[in-house]
Amino acid sequence: MSDFVKAEDVFVNQHGKDRKEILRFIAERSVELGAADDADAVYDAFLAREDMGETGMTDGFAVPHAKADAIKNAVVIVYKNDTPVEWPSFDDKPVDICIALLVPAGEAGTTHIKLLSKTAVLLMRDEFKSLVRGTDDKQAIADAINAGIDEE
Questions:
Q1: Is-above-0.85 flag for pTM?
Q2: Is 65 a catalytic residue?
């Protein structure tokens, strides 16, 4: 299994008050993790994508994604909030778990599409959603996503 998603890319027991605060947190962590070099550019990329349509899926999960020149390496950052927040979603329910995809602008048609499709498949699986929702074990969450990314 790959180690594309690492335990350090998973943030649990967070306290974001709204969607913008959560996206700002993820953008700032992307710089701290070395995946990006400009948190403002990453945040702006998230907001630009949010303006195009909902990234909230169903059952409290969202898949925000950013494509920007400021992103140096593709990374998946998982964010679990302690309470659901308003987030435009397919089922009109609030979101408390984000699986954020950050991709360099030059990989928009390749890496981005692969990560988005693999994540969408994972979010159709009740056992995956239950695992992520039911644990704060960062390594277990990272391993579950890596297993999904590795599937052919």
A1: yes
A2: yes
